[in-house]
Every structure is written in C-alpha cells, then in structure tokens.
C-alpha cells in the first residue's frame, strides 16, 4: 500500500500561441506549441485514515480549500471512485504564480497522477487527461508533458518530437496578469492575418530539430494585450536578445518572458545580468533551466 508520494509539477512555456476565435460558450479556440521546462513545484501526498482532503502550502496567500486546483483534482477522483480514506497535500511552490507557466494546472495534474497511483484507481494517462480538462484547459497537457501541439481550448493534444536541447532563461517581472483580462481584451475575431504566428511552420521546424528556425518563428498574439499594458515585458524581451538569446517571447498570457540560448555561457551571463546586473530592475524572479521531456512526475 502506498502511503506517501513525492511528485514534481513542472512548468511550461509556449513556443508559439495563436488565438483563432472566440466561441459561443465564452472560451477561445487556440493553437499553441507547448514545451515543458525543468523548473517545478514539489507536491507531496500522504494518505490519512480520517476522511477528507487537507492542503498545506509554503505561500500564505494561496488558498488551502476548494479554491486551490490541487484540492479540486483530489476531490474529482476521490468522489468519483468513492475513496473513503483521506489525503493530505503539501504543496511547495517554486514556479512563479499567475505567470503564464501553468503552475496551478501542473500541480493539479500531479495530484491526479498521484491519487490514481496511491489509491490504485487504474486509470490510464488518457483517462486522467479526459478528467483533467474539467479542472483547467492546461491540465491535460501537464499530464502529457514534453513538446506538443495544443488545439481546441487546449485539450486537443498532438505530441511532437522533443525539442533540441538548449539553455532557457525565464524571467517574471514583479506584476501579475489576469488571464481573463487578457482574453477579454484581445478581440480575437478582429486580428489581421499577419498578427497570427506561423504554427504550422513552427511544427515543421520542430520536426526538423532546427533550434534556430524554431526561435525564428516565435509568436504570441496575447502579447498584443499584455505587452501594451505592461511595457516591462517588451523590455525583458529586448534585454534577453541583447544578452545573446536566439529570440525571446512572453509565455501564455504573461507576464513571464523566456529566451532561448544556444550558448551555455551566454545563458549564464544573461541570468546574472537579469538576476544581479544591469537588467535586475526588470525581473523579480529569474531562472536558468532547459527543456524537460520526461513524462513521469515521480522522483
């Protein structure tokens, strides 16, 4: 019987993000290239004899009730399969919060995986992904991980070949962005053709394992809203390019910005400049990492 599980909930970036249209149900149809990166939250699960779900976090402002996605994920499976025992979830956040890196969705995905394993529910990854979309559009991808084309509202996933490895510098300015605000102010149905990123070209570049072609096809239509409201996003992109990035882009609805570096030395110098040096005023959190393509969340 499994009594404890230690899981890693990895963050993601969007190598490209296009919004096609606003749907009648209020959601948006999107096409995105998703990529897991090697920074993560720690999610520890402990089986309890007494029924109920309890949540503990290292950040005082995060909810520890049904308003937290990890609670919702555990409740979803435990109610469906009538699990009588209880569960304690300890969540240690290291990914930036409200940053366009799917931290909350990845935490929920880790809990779905963990509850399924701990209580022997026997669900396949595909079955977990079908349930995960009820919690959030990014949850199915966070169960899949790696490099993938995401369509629909984010739940239609096509795995792609792994990206060629490189260094990734990630920086979040000291602001938080409302995803709802960004989508409500995008006016997707009015976008001009040239404002849409070349998703198909990005897929071909990934299949060709051409890092330079991938970087050359970066595009995120949500920058039209977020960057105009928060100019620091454009300043971060420029700083990364000045420090040797092949290209830089905002992830998701922002405000996190990432740059790809072919040179480890250039990436380290960029990290130092953003963390301690001449660009330090632009970012509150800075990470130096790489792509992560392992689909197993347990470590």
UniProtKB/TrEMBL annotation:
**Entry EC no(s):** 2.7.1.148
Active site, renumbered:
12, 138
Q: Which InterPro entries does the annotation name?
A: GHMP_kinase_C_dom, GHMP_kinase_C_sf, GHMP_kinase_N_dom, IspE, Ribosomal_Su5_D2-typ_SF, Ribsml_uS5_D2-typ_fold_subgr
EC main class here is transferase
Coiled coil start-end: none
Q: Which residues form the GHMP kinase N-terminal domain?
A: 68-146
The GHMP kinase C-terminal domain, residue ranges: 203-275
- SUPFAM superfamilies, alphabetically? GHMP Kinase, C-terminal domain, Ribosomal protein S5 domain 2-like
Residues that bind ATP? 96-106
Q: Name one Pfam family in it.
A: GHMP_kinases_N
> Part of which pathway?
Isoprenoid biosynthesis; isopentenyl diphosphate biosynthesis via DXP pathway; isopentenyl diphosphate from 1-deoxy-D-xylulose 5-phosphate: step 3/6
Per the record, the similarity remark reads:
Belongs to the GHMP kinase family. IspE subfamily.
PANTHER family assigned: 4-DIPHOSPHOCYTIDYL-2-C-METHYL-D-ERYTHRITOL KINASE, CHLOROPLASTIC (PTHR43527)
What this protein is reported to do is described as: Catalyzes the phosphorylation of the position 2 hydroxy group of 4-diphosphocytidyl-2C-methyl-D-erythritol.
Protein name in the entry: 4-diphosphocytidyl-2-C-methyl-D-erythritol kinase
Q: Which organism is it from?
A: Candidatus Caccovicinus merdipullorum
């Amino acid at each position: 019987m499994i009594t404890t599980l230690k899981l890693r909930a990895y963050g993601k970036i969007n190598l490209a993000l296009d919004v096609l249209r606003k749907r009648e149900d209020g959601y948006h149809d999107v096409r995105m290239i998703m990529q897991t990166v090697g920074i993560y939250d720690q999610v520890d699960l402990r089986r309890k004899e007494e029924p109920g779900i309890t949540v503990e976090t290292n950040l005082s402002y995060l909810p520890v009730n049904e308003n937290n996605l990890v609670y919702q994920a555990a409740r979803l499976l435990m109610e469906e399969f009538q699990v009588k025992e209880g569960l304690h979830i300890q969540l240690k956040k290291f990914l930036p919060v409200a940053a366009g890196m799917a931290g909350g969705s990845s935490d929920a995905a880790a809990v779905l995986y963990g509850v399924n394993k701990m209580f022997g529910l026997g669900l396949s990854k595909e079955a977990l992904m079908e349930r995960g979309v009820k919690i959030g559009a990014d949850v199915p991808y966070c169960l899949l991980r790696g490099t993938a084309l995401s369509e629909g509202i984010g739940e239609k996933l096509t795995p792609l070949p792994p990206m060629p490895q490189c260094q990734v510098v990630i920086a979040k300015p000291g602001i938080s962005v409302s995803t709802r605000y960004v989508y409500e102010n995008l006016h997707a149905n009015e976008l001009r053709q040239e404002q849409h990123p070349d998703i198909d070209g990005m897929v071909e570049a990934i299949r060709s394992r051409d890092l330079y072609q991938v970087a050359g096809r970066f595009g995120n239509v949500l920058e039209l809203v977020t960057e105009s409201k928060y100019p620091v996003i454009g300043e971060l992109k420029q700083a990364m390019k000045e420090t040797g990035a092949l290209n830089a882009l905002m992830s998701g609805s922002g405000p996190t910005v990432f740059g790809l570096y072919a040179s480890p030395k250039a990436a380290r110098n960029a990290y130092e400049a953003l963390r301690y040096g001449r660009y330090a005023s632009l970012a509150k959190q800075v990470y130096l990492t790489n792509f992560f393509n392992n689909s197993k969340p347990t470590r």
